[in-house]
Amino acid sequence: MSLALEATNMSFTAAELEDIKKKEEEVLCRALRDFNIPKIVLDDLEIFLGLIGDLFPGVDVPRLVNEDLEATIKRVTVESGLQAEDSFILKVVQLEELLEVRHSVFILGDAGVGKTQCWKMLAKTYQDMGRKILHPVINPKAVTTKELYGYIMPATREWKDGLFSNTMRTLSNIANTEPKWIVLDGDVDTIWIESLNTVMDDNKMLTLASNERVPLHPHMRLLFEVGQLTHASPATVSRAGILFINQTDVGWSAYVQSWIRRR
């Protein structure tokens, strides 16, 4: 029996073995806190932490830290000419944690808060770790819905492929299981986002007007880089994870320091 347990333990990391020894309320407290903090506005953070404190009085569990990953992110960030501030590194780590459990993620925040650099630094981190990641970027507002998903030409009844459908099919047909992200950088509205509901839910399937079904494989992700979700329905928002980047997470000082370094 002890040999079987020892063999089982060998498949866990040191951090995971430490979690097994924790009490149930400690694991639940950290899960609720670390999963919800990335999507909470800074003004509401104190209220949320107060609620967590009321639910779990006397429980103080530190955040699970992957030191090797964070060290790689910091090094890659500095090599890219950016400032490796702790708040920015934390957002990159939170994005990585969200992508582990959700296949669709909204990166939400105002212009200039570092949304693009957040996912780019994580992609470069994966590349530095030897993972061949693909992340084509599409602006869904630059084309019509037909040009995005494809349509049947009325005159000839021929299928005209769309930008998103072609990209997703191409990535889906690649045999390897390396990370593949489709980055949709543009405002969200009901005109184009509703067609992705079947991709964002548990079906993970894009159904085209030609009756073709393109699967979203487990190693594929949808990343939405948006400024606000005013025009997104609750059904759409509930299907994805959210990473909210506050204006203070990067701030103006990092831009100034990076500009000075380039001078």
TrEMBL record:
One term of GO molecular function: dynein light intermediate chain binding
Gene Ontology BP terms: microtubule-based movement
Annotated InterPro entries: AAA_6 (IPR035699), DHC (IPR026983), Dynein_AAA1S (IPR043157), P-loop_NTPase (IPR027417)
Domain Dynein heavy chain hydrolytic ATP-binding dynein motor region: 19-116
Leader sequence segment: none
Annotated GO CC locations: dynein complex
Pfam family, one: AAA_6
Top-rank taxon, per record: Eukaryota
UniProt protein name: Dynein heavy chain
